Automatic annotation (TrEMBL):
It comes from Gryllotalpicola protaetiae. The chain crosses the membrane at residues 32-50, 57-88, 94-115, 127-146. It comes from the Bacteria. The keyword Membrane applies. This is DoxX family membrane protein. Keywords: Membrane, Transmembrane, Transmembrane helix.
Length: 148
């Protein structure tokens, strides 16, 4: 739920600042949403490296995927790089496309995580909310791509 709140609040505040100030870099919902997504991905990427949360993320990597600790590290790094890319107008669309693909690639872990509690620090969100959150995040990415 926290990533969704960050996305919505930062996007709305950024759009409000853009509307009040007239700054061209945040003068539309797609650009404001890029900032919201960047904040969200920075927040989620940090959790990939916090020991307790990291252990929970490793626990939700489906067993068919080798080297779950490496996968968690790589996805955390990709989220950071993508978030930075969203903040640069010249790389925004490419970053959004890559982050959209990453969201799709990580979706099996979300489904797997909803199925069983393998670790006390693993995310504990039921499947339907996970699907809804993921669809909202993908819709935000699409808004940035189309508006870019």
């Amino acid at each position: 739920m926290a990533p969704l709140i960050v996305l919505i609040v930062i996007s709305a505040l950024t759009r409000l600042v853009g509307w009040i100030s007239g700054l061209p870099v945040i003068d539309s919902w797609p650009s404001a949403t890029a900032y919201g997504l960047a904040a969200m991905f920075i927040m989620t990427s940090i959790t990939h490296f916090v020991p307790r949360r990291r252990a929970g993320f490793i626990a939700i990597v489906p067993p068919v995927i080798p080297a779950p600790a490496l996968v968690v590290s790589v996805t955390g790094i990709l989220e950071i790089v993508g978030a930075i890319g969203l903040l640069i107008p010249q790389t925004r669309v490419l970053a959004a496309v890559c982050l959209g693909l990453l969201l799709i690639a990580m979706f099996p872990a979300n489904i797997y995580a909803a199925g069983a509690r393998r670790h006390p620090d693993a995310p504990h969100t039921a499947l339907m909310p996970r699907i809804i959150y993921q669809l909202v995040f993908i819709a935000a990415v699409i808004l940035v791509i189309v508006g870019g």
